[in-house]
């Protein structure tokens, strides 16, 4: 059965930079988390939910969980795509999944991050902030 919700995704193309590789010429595993960040930033720009938008509303969204599974290596000079998908939740959280594909369209890596909302006092928000709920409503979520 197909969900009635919109599925929001964003695809960003990136080239592996020299400083991201180890002596073997492959991307060091820690950089994949940075690539996830690139995906979140691109998603925010495309769908109107950037970190600056969140900050202007008086909130921050620290990551409380991240996962990353590696399947194939990326090498210096290759291009790859990051597909970032927003996972809708009733909780006051930002959940994203990621798939990274190499230039041969092979799945290189997949993962997920979970972020929570903290208000200007650093208190955890148990309910969606008004601006975030308005964004979800606008997006049909």
UniProtKB/TrEMBL annotation:
Its EC number is 3.1.2.-. Belongs to the 4-hydroxybenzoyl-CoA thioesterase family. Transmembrane segments: none annotated. GO terms for molecular function: hydrolase activity. InterPro entries: 4-hydroxybenzoyl-CoA_TE, HB-CoA_thioesterase_AS, HotDog_dom_sf, YbgC/YbaW. It comes from the Bacteria. Keywords: Hydrolase. The lineage of its organism: Bacteria, Pseudomonadati, Bacteroidota, Flavobacteriia, Flavobacteriales. It holds the Pfam family 4HBT_2. This is Acyl-CoA thioester hydrolase.
């Amino acid at each position: 059965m197909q969900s009635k919700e919109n599925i929001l995704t964003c695809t960003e193309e990136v080239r592996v930079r020299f400083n991201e590789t180890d002596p073997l010429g492959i991307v060091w595993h820690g950089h994949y988390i940075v690539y996830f960040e690139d995906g979140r930033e691109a998603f925010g720009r495309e769908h109107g939910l950037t970190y600056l938008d969140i900050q202007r509303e008086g909130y921050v969204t620290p990551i409380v969980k991240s996962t990353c599974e590696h399947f194939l290596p990326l090498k210096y000079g290759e291009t790859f795509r990051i597909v970032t998908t927003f996972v809708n939740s009733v909780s006051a959280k930002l959940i994203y999944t990621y798939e990274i594909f190499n230039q041969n369209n092979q799945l290189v890596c997949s993962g997920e991050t979970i972020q929570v909302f903290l208000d200007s006092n650093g208190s955890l928000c148990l309910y969606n902030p008004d601006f975030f709920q308005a964004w979800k409503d606008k997006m049909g979520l």
